[in-house]
UniProtKB/TrEMBL annotation:
The basal body constitutes a major portion of the flagellar organelle and consists of four rings (L,P,S, and M) mounted on a central rod. GO terms for biological process: bacterial-type flagellum-dependent cell motility. Assembles around the rod to form the L-ring and probably protects the motor/basal body from shearing forces during rotation. The gene is flgI. Belongs to the FlgI family. Coiled coil: none annotated. Keywords: Bacterial flagellum, Cell projection, Cilium, Flagellum, Signal. It comes from Massilia psychrophila. Residues 1-22 form the signal peptide. NCBIfam families: PRK05303.1. It is found in: Bacterial flagellum basal body. This is Flagellar P-ring protein. Its main location: other. GO terms for molecular function: structural molecule activity.
Length: 367
């Protein structure tokens, strides 16, 4: 299996492209307390066309139906055995947006937890959705919309997408609002998406330059405390302007991400190698730095410049020790190894060895 040449080319183009001069503060940080809250609940989907749970294998479905019927005033005779085909036990999940108020609707996802073949055409019975504190924040109910198709013929079946998962747009109504302490003590906190002390200091500088001195203070490499107006109306306007401020983030740390299954390699910036020696199977990678001389034109006041340009030569030579000199680009090494048809495991082994030897000055992440 060969590495994608187009992916390597894309990485090279990305590395060569200039970094954006500034980004919105809204894209770099979030406001503490302004977040979603996960909700979940256990419910029953009814009205299926014979594609529900096999009750002999999912006793909790029968128990749920019996309990629901008792709540509706229907008492089944003792010893009654229910053989249900149109009912499925499901888990209902949703995200409660920040500042959601009672009466608003949110989208929900309905997922089968039994052995139902499909939820298509089913109706979710009223289901309470609870938060992490076990309090009910929304009530869900509605017709389940399932994407995909399924067909069966002559003992074989064909299925496209998951028929055991569906969605209900606006299927839950918010019943309780989540308390928010935004603006408590006339201050808000900005939390950077990535810890970086230089970016934090630049955010403080940008805020203070726009609103005035001592408005923002960095508490650490991620959290910045900002003084805000006491009036809620003024605070909203203030936060709107704050999120729109442009800040030049610091260059991110060098990182190499490799997918060991597909062989994809992604680098977030130009990564170079320190001097080292490698021998791996029948692969031979030779990297040398040859001087290149730039001679100014006659009569000009320019100076002669000598630079070291790494030259990469990759061959299959078993047993040969590979010398890598300082300054070699990892992007070029990956591209050269890919050119001879090396496997993903070959590259993975080489990258891990480079990292262990201290030659790869970047964070290596294997996914």
């Amino acid at each position: 299996m060969r590495f994608s040449a187009s992916l390597i080319a894309l990485c090279a183009a990305f590395l060569a492209a200039p970094l954006a001069s500034a980004e919105r503060l809204k894209d770099l940080a979030s406001i503490a307390g302004v977040r979603q809250n996960q909700l979940s609940g256990y419910g029953i989907v009814v009205g299926l066309d014979g594609t529900g749970d096999q009750t002999t294998q999912t006793p909790f479905t029968v128990q749920s139906i019996v309990s629901m019927l008792q709540q509706k005033g229907v008492n089944l005779p003792a010893g009654t055995s229910l053989q249900l085909k149109n009912v499925a036990a499901v888990m209902v999940t949703a995200s409660l947006p920040a500042f959601a108020q009672p009466g608003q609707t949110i989208d929900i996802t309905v997922s089968s937890i039994g052995n139902a073949k499909s939820l298509r055409g089913g109706t979710l019975v009223m289901t309470p959705l609870q938060g992490a504190d076990q309090q009910v924040y929304a009530m869900a109910q509605g017709n389940v919309l399932v994407g995909g198709v399924g067909a069966a013929a002559a003992g074989s079946s064909i299925q496209v997408n998951h028929l055991s998962v569906g969605k209900i747009s606006g299927g839950a109504t918010v019943e309780r609002a989540v308390a928010s302490n935004l603006g408590a003590d006339n201050q808000v906190r900005l939390e950077l998406n990535t810890t970086d002390f230089l970016t934090a200091s630049r955010v403080v500088e940008a805020v203070n330059n726009h609103f005035g001195p001592d408005i923002a203070t960095a508490l650490d490499g991620r959290v910045i405390r900002v003084r805000s107006p006491s009036s809620s109306d003024q605070r909203v306007a203030f936060l709107g302007i704050l999120e729109s401020l442009e800040v030049s983030p610091a260059a991110s740390s060098a990182k190499v991400i490799m997918n060991a299954r597909t062989g994809s390699v992604v680098m977030n910036q130009a990564v170079t190698l320190e001097s080292c020696a490698i021998s791996h199977g029948n692969l031979s990678v030779t990297i040398s730095a040859e001087p290149q001389v730039s001679q100014p034109a006659p009569g000009s006041r320019g100076n002669t410049v000598v630079t070291q340009a790494p030259q990469i030569d990759v061959k299959k030579e078993p047993g040969r020790v590979v010398m890598l000199k300082s300054g070699a680009s990892l992007a070029e090494v990956v591209k050269a190894i890919n050119a001879i048809g090396a496997s993903p495991q070959d590259l993975l082994s080489i990258l891990q060895a480079l990292k262990a030897a201290g030659s790869l000055r970047a964070e290596l992440e294997i996914i």
